[in-house]
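Notes taken during the Thursday session

The instructor put the following on the board and asked us to keep it in front of us for the whole hour. The protein is YjbQ family protein. We were told not to look anything up and to reason only from what is written here. First, the residues (140 in total):
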Amino acid sequence: MKVIQNEMQLQPFKRGFHIITNEVVAALPELNTITTGMLHVFIKHTSASLTISENADPSVRVDFERHFNVMVPENQSYYTHTYEGADDMPAHIKSALLGSSVHIPITNGQLNLGTWQGIYMCEHRDYGGSRHLVLTAFGM
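Then, after some discussion, the predicted structure tokens were revealed:
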């Protein structure tokens, strides 16, 4: 079994849902040495998250952002964690709902995603800054 682990830093993104599939693949040049395996992508932050969804129509990402802002609104009187700004506690909740990692099969040196699938980095803060990912690929 082969195990490869790389860390990468993403550029700062504005608040929203952003496809990062190409950046992840570029940060893992050894991916082509794995015939059959799995890639685990982990984000080292509590106010941003990862998920897999539609990679073709940008309106999907806009709708995700709008829905999450309705589902987890800012400036609620019941939030006690407020000293980092109105977007911080909702960002933690959104991150917990979506999760901090995704797994993608590797087949013949490539991510085995569906035709319309891409890896999303979900930035839940207005100014979240750069984000750090740990990429762990393992397989034969």
